[in-house]
Amino acid sequence: MKIKSSFLVKPHSKVRLSRLSTSEHPGFDDKNATEPVLTAHAKRLSDLQEVLYAGQQKAVLIVLQGMDTAGKDGTWDRSAGGCKVDAQRR
């Protein structure tokens, strides 16, 4: 699956979060338009996570940064809630 996104970060590149828009919602007019896409991607992510876990050689790090009540838990639950994770909160 080839992913093209303004949110995709290339390996070993520097990221300046202050330069990224927080109000961008590319390709979706409203919240309901995201449901079928989220469902399909959540299933795919769950399947890929099983493969990574079985191989026990690689890992994925996902960082959700935001102030209290920014919606980090809800974002995770709606996008990848089906994955088994070792959540580290700091």
Key words describing this protein structure:
mainly alpha, 90 residues
Structure, described:
The chain has helices at residues 35-55, 72-80. With 90 residues, it is mainly α. The mean pLDDT is 76.
Short description:
The chain is globular. Helices cover 33% and strands 0% of the residues.
Largest β-sheet summary: none
Provide a count of the helices: 2
Secondary-structure-derived class: mainly alpha
The total beta strand count reads: 0
* Share in β-strands: under 5%
General form: globular
pLDDT < 50 stretches:
none
- Helix amount, in percent? 25-40%
Query: End-to-end distance, in Å?
Result: 32 Å
User: What is the arithmetic mean of pLDDT?
Assistant: 76
Give the ordered list of helices and strands.
HH
Write the layout of secondary structure elements.
Elements: H1 35-55, H2 72-80
